[in-house]
Design a protein that fits this description.
The structure holds two protein chains of two kinds. Chain A is an alpha+beta fold. Chain A is 59% helix and 14% strand. Chain A folds into five domains: 220 residues, no CATH class; 198 residues, no CATH class; 88 residues, no CATH class; 198 residues, no CATH class; 142 residues, no CATH class. In chain A, strand 11 and strand 12 form a beta hairpin. In chain A, helix 3 packs antiparallel against helix 13, helix 15 runs antiparallel to helix 16 and helix 17 runs parallel beside helix 30. Chain A is elongated. Chain B has a single domain, classed as 3-Layer(aba) Sandwich (Rossmann fold), CATH 3.40.50.300. Chain B is built from seven helices and ten strands. Chain B has a six-stranded mixed beta sheet, with helices on both faces. Chain B has a four-stranded antiparallel beta sheet with strand order 2-1-4-5. In chain B, helix 3 packs parallel to helix 5, helix 4 crosses helix 5 and helix 5 packs parallel to helix 6. Chain B starts with 8 loop residues before the first strand and ends in a 13-residue tail after the last strand. The interface between A and B is large, with 33 and 39 residues.
Chain lengths: 946, 243
């Protein structure tokens, strides 16, 4: 806000201390309230889009942070060890921990379980956990009883206190009975009460947002394990929860110090420390920033369109007032004062539009997040994010500042440019002739620019910067343009430069990828901008030819001729409008094409992800399904058991802090029946050979391309073949370092890091239980549908790999849809822009319309001429945007930026709808100004003019 | 008022009132006017006397509040807007003080507008417009846009535009108001020649020199015609229809 105030000072000075300029600025601003409103509307969209983007980031950030309150509360670190026998050891080391950074510890015993209701229809929660703790100690834990979510006494034998999530899933209430299944044992429990999903009560160590917790009396888990007949189940966990001093979020700042303390305390104990709170907060920041960046980057197209609109509006304003401005200069107003008056008027618009835009942006963010919340709630699994609208004032202020700076910079630059008119020509309303050849000075400046461009290109290649590589050659070409224009006819020079820039912008992405330069979502902004700019220059150069061709087609229509005459004659304005439309359509078509290309991958993705299998099943690690038994069933062709656990990735290229990731161990059966396809198998002869090598060597692993990366755009390979990655078991604290042997195709089944079973057993120890499996079965749908019912006690869940891919892609499509809805805002800019421009055009041409009407031009023909004019610009803009987006998308598919399976596909329906919709909206926006033009009474227009 | 028999234009009891906020201005008060074919009529008077309003109302550019205007026997104000517009396209030409050319059209494109509006074939329209521009001395400037022409040249394009459609009557509102005296004289000479060829001209002007070029001078004051005289010594009166 201080920056806004500082930037406003010169304008406030003009308004406060220069009465003439103040009168000029303010009276011009209020002279035509309807048009002022339109100018503000056009200007506020930039602020709204930026604020909306930040609000999206804030909402995601806050929603993930909410997990820190609901599923952790006072819990900052989780110390866990395998087996019940570890509990006394942990208690002795940590039970009386005294440290200024720690305000409490809480002992807990847990094991995974599945749960079901006991009355028909039976409802099940395959993924739940049994927990034992002392409720009085739990309430005291962390110093804020409310933050723990714990209330009432510790449950007695046979009783259970469950979380509201589980109560909802099983549809049970106090007094009802439930059954819990673990280690092959069924336990019947009476529900005493339901606790909220909050703090210790909501404690959940997995990625799921539902906390299906069953608190039971101490000793219950030991009793179950004692009665167990299951030889291969993962052991229960002995856990100590640690609360850092400070609030729920502030406490995480002490994690580093507490981590060191815990490591010292646990020396020699087979236990691990999981900095869960910090990881959740990091993830919140990462997701929030990444989404805000994605939305802001793609929204930049709409912002740029809004800037072009603003420039256009100001040039029209200046054109309309040219003679009065010329008169003011003639009577002694200095050029600087003229800039001051014009810019002060623009400042009024900028302030109003920035404030209004901020509110619109908040509303926009809220609408987007409401749509996203619906989208996520449809996903149907427990790992969805529960979105809660939130924003930070800092984000609102940032949106306001960016919008204000954009508006004010546009206004000031436009004012300076406009003030450089010839006074006499302005007074007499004579168009200033364009110089035939650029001045020699321009050539020298251009050559200097070209040299800088060369340096930029070289720097881009040397530093692997896509931005520099992309823009360097463009600067070179723009630099040599004045020199070319001095030696060749200007249209020839401009056409040549425009064509080469266009070609380079298309080729830049494949070239960057060939040079191994990483490209992210910023690529779309820079590439789109350069492409559209070059295409608009080319079109502007050949606008007369295009117009004449259309004119010849509609030879007899005077309305068409007149409608085309204005956009052909006003090249600058037409280019601005064209650019505005083309930018917006470009990004919308681009996103549509990518959505279509991704959705078209379902067959290929399923084949790649499946290998020789067609179903993926999972079960409770404390009570896993006996996969060997399944393998013998009729119709089952193969079963490949997998061991999947969460690990901490503690060391990897580019990793600054440990991150939780899934890891899966496979055995020979997985490889023999056909494992998922690899994207890069390095030097191995075949995919199978690579999988076998990893199976044979406990030091090798396979990852997917997006391992540890985050953000939009093409997946960035942060970790590649040959890199070394260290994984730590979350229970025992054991670590192993792997070398990456191959990169898999997208990991839709969430296998995470893949390594051989020997390495898995070594790393996971007692937790190395085969709880998942890839299955090849004759009738996958029937098998998958029946699986959960058959293995209720095991927490069984099965999905065909086709469904897994379909669900993944469906969510991706929903995301694209959401993105397109957001980007459609740009269309509002375009359509509102054309409306504003046509309103101003009617005012500007009032006299000419009057003359035409006097000469015998029918009202309907006047209306038609305005409609033809906007239709011509809209069609050109839509065509430029569409063609460029298609070429650009096609060029990207020539590379493997988004994986080798991405095939170029044109969603004709979606693009057709977009083109026709945009065109119709442009016509609708022109309807009112065209009608008002047709109603101009010739005598009135001429009388006012003369 | 002259004899209305066989007149080209007959305006009877024409009234026009402007409403400006709460104020009412009677611009025309019961005006009668008769113009015969081939006449060169100048309408003079001080500012606010109603000259331009009379031109606008009699040409059908503006509505009237009372009376009627007959052009070639057709009651202009009884026609719909579309019919009246078509009538203007086929029967009238206009010359304005501020030229009022379409800036995005070239000289020849401006001149051919009335022809195209009257439904003349595009090629024929271009040929006739070019010929008219030749006649007003702009044969070499056909492709130039208004911004590339001087004031006098622009006014000559306006004259060409007014004549290209071979109208029954040309209305001119201060045709020399924006020109220097030499250029103004050239334009008036051109108009005199056209009138000699049979063109009916009705010119609104402040300029007594312009007024003297006409063969009939009407003076207005406060929305009324206060005098209507034949100008002695004026060159006027059509011998044969100019077209």
């Amino acid at each position: 806000m201080i920056l806004v105030a500082l930037l406003s000072l010169p304008f406030l000075f003009v308004l406060a201390r220069k009465p003439v300029l103040r009168r000029l600025a303010l009276r011009n601003a209020v002279r035509r309230p309807r048009e002022t409103a339109l100018v503000i509307l056009g200007s506020l969209l930039g602020t709204a889009i930026m604020t909306g983007s930040f609000v999206v980031g804030d909402t995601f950030n806050a929603s993930i942070r909410r997990t820190a309150h609901t599923q952790l509360g006072p819990v900052d670190e989780i110390v866990s060890a395998n087996g019940l026998a570890s509990a006394p050891v942990l208690a002795s080391r940590l039970g009386r921990l005294r440290d200024p950074n720690v305000d409490g510890t809480l002992a807990l015993t847990s094991t995974t379980a599945s749960a079901a209701s006991t009355t028909a229809p039976v409802r099940a929660a395959p993924k739940a956990q049994l927990l034992e703790t002392d409720f009085s100690a739990a309430r005291r834990f962390g110093g804020d009883p409310h933050a723990t979510g714990i209330s009432g006494p510790t449950p007695s034998v046979g009783d259970a206190v469950i979380t509201s999530d589980l109560a909802r899933a099983l549809r049970v209430k106090s007094g009802d009975a439930i059954e819990a299944f673990a280690y092959g044992v069924r336990v019947r429990l009476r529900v005493l009460r339901a606790l909220p999903k909050l703090g210790v009560a909501g404690y959940w160590p997995g990625d799921e947002t539902a906390s299906n917790n069953i608190f039971v009396s101490p000793g219950t888990i030991a009793g179950i394990v004692g009665r167990s007949a299951s030889p291969t189940a993962a052991p229960p966990q002995s856990i100590v929860l640690v609360s850092n001093r400070g609030g729920v979020e502030a406490g995480a700042r002490r994690t580093g110090a507490v981590d060191r303390l815990l490591e010292a305390q646990l020396r020699g104990v087979a236990a691990s420390v999981n900095n869960r709170k910090q990881a959740v907060l990091d993830r919140a920041d990462r997701s929030g920033k990444s989404l805000a960046r994605l939305y802001a980057s793609l929204g930049a197209f709409a912002v740029l369109a809004a800037i072009l609109l603003l420039v256009n509006i100001f040039f029209m304003l200046a054109d309309e007032r040219k003679s009065e401005l010329g008169m003011l200069r003639a009577v002694g107003l200095r050029r600087l004062s003229l800039v001051g008056a014009f810019a002060a008027e623009g400042w009024c618009y900028a302030v109003l539009s920035a404030i209004a835009g901020t509110f619109v942006g908040l509303g926009l963010g809220r609408a987007l997040m409401a749509a996203a919340a619906k989208l996520f709630s449809r996903r149907g699994d427990d790992s969805r994010i529960a979105l809660h609208f939130a924003f930070k004032w800092a984000s609102v202020q940032r949106g306001l500042l960016i919008g204000f700076v954009i508006a004010i910079a546009t206004v000031v630059l436009a004012s300076v440019w406009l003030s450089r008119f010839n006074i006499i020509q302005a007074i007499r309303d004579i168009t200033e002739p364009a110089p035939r050849r650029p001045h020699r000075r321009s050539s020298y400046l251009g050559i200097t620019g070209a040299l800088l461009g060369l340096a930029l290109t070289a720097a881009g290649v040397a530093s692997s910067s896509f931005l520099a590589l992309m823009l360097g050659p463009v600067v070179v070409l723009l630099g040599i343009a004045p020199m070319l224009a001095r030696n060749f006819p200007r249209p020839v020079a401009n056409t040549a430069v425009g064509a080469v820039v266009l070609a380079w912008a298309v080729a830049a992405v494949p070239v960057a990828i060939a040079l191994d330069i990483s490209v992210d979502v910023l690529l779309f902004v820079v590439q789109g901008l350069v492409l559209v700019g070059a295409a608009v220059v080319l079109t502007a150069q050949h606008q007369q030819a295009i117009g004449h061709a259309i004119g010849r087609m509609a030879k007899r229509s005077l309305a068409v001729r007149l409608g085309l005459a204005y956009p052909l004659a006003r090249r600058f304005r037409t280019s601005m409008t064209l650019g505005m439309f083309a930018l917006v359509v470009f990004i919308l078509v681009m996103v549509s094409v990518f959505a279509s290309m991704f959705s078209g991958q379902i067959g290929e993705f399923t084949r790649d992800a499946s290998g020789g299998f067609n179903v993926v099943v999972q079960s409770n690690p404390s009570n896993p399904v006996a996969f060997d038994t399944i393998a013998r069933e009729a119709g089952v062709r193969a079963v490949a058991p997998l061991t999947t656990v969460n690990v901490q990735i503690t060391a990897a290229p580019g990793l600054t802090r440990a991150r939780e990731w899934t890891a899966t161990g496979y055995d020979r059966r997985f490889v023999d029946h056909g494992p998922p396809k690899l994207d890069d198998r390095a030097g191995y002869a075949s995919d199978t050979a690579a999988y076998r090598a990893v199976l044979a060597s406990p030091d090798l692993a396979i990852i997917e391309a997006s391992f540890l990366s985050s953000g939009g755009g093409p997946p960035r390979e942060q970790v590649g073949i040959g890199d070394r990655v260290t994984a730590q078991d979350e229970a025992s604290g054991r670590s192993r370092t792997f070398t990456i042997a191959a990169i898999s195709t997208p990991d839709v089944a969430d296998n995470g890091v893949l390594f051989g079973i020997t390495a898995a057993r070594d790393l996971f120890g007692a937790r190395a239980v085969a709880d998942r499996a890839y299955v090849d079965v004759r009738d996958p749908n029937v098998f998958a549908d029946a699986f959960a019912g058959r293995f209720l006690a095991n927490g069984g869940k099965a999905q065909t790999l086709h469904t897994v891919v379909q669900t993944d892609l469906a969510q991706q499509q929903q995301f694209f849809l959401l993105m397109r809805s957001y980007l459609a805002l740009g269309l509002v800019v375009g359509v509102a822009g054309i409306g504003v421009i046509m309103v101003r055009a009617v005012r500007e041409r009032r006299r000419q319309v009057g003359v035409l009407r006097a000469l015998g031009f029918q009202a309907a023909a006047v209306r038609a001429a305005f409609v033809v004019e906007s239709a011509f610009v809209a069609v050109e803009g839509v065509l430029i945007g569409t063609v460029l987006a298609l070429v650009c998308a096609w060029s990207i598919t020539l590379t493997d930026a988004f994986g080798s399976t991405l095939a170029f596909r044109v969603p004709f329906g979606a693009i057709g709808l977009l083109m026709v919709g945009t065109f119709i909206c442009a016509l609708l926006a022109t309807a009112a100004p065209a009608r008002s033009a047709a109603r101009i009474r010739p005598a009135v227009a001429l009388r006012l003019a003369d | 008022m002259t004899d209305p028999t066989d007149a080209l234009l007959v305006a009877e009891h024409v009234r026009k009132t402007y409403h400006t906020g709460a104020e009412e201005v009677e611009a025309l008060r019961d005006v009668d006017l008769v113009v015969h074919e081939g006449e060169f009529v100048s309408i003079m008077g001080p500012s606010g006397s109603g000259k331009t309003t009379l031109l606008n109302c009699c040409s059908g550019l503006d509505e009237i509040d009372g009376g009627r205007v007959m052009l070639d026997g057709v009651d202009l104000h009884a026609l719909s807007d579309a019919r009246r517009t078509a009538n203007r396209a086929s029967s009238m030409g206009f010359i304005f003080q501020a030229y009022n050319l379409i800036p995005v059209f070239s000289a020849v494109e401006n001149a051919e507008l009335p022809l195209l509006l009257a439904g003349v074939d595009a090629k024929e329209a271009r040929r006739r417009a070019s010929a008219t521009l030749e006649r007003v001395g702009l044969g070499a400037r056909l492709k130039d846009r208004p911004a590339e022409l001087s004031g006098g040249e622009q006014q000559r394009v306006t004259v060409a535009r007014a004549l290209a459609g071979k109208p029954r009557v040309v209305w001119a509102d201060e045709p020399t108001g924006a020109l220097d005296s030499e250029t103004a004289e050239q334009v008036m000479q051109l108009l005199r020649e056209l009138n000699t060829d049979g063109l009916t001209l009705i010119v609104v002007t402040h300029d007594s020199g312009v007024g003297r070029s006409a063969n009939r001078e009407i003076r207005m004051r406060d929305g009324r015609i206060v005098s209507d005289d034949v100008v002695a010594g004026a060159v006027g009166g059509a011998i044969a229809p100019w077209r």
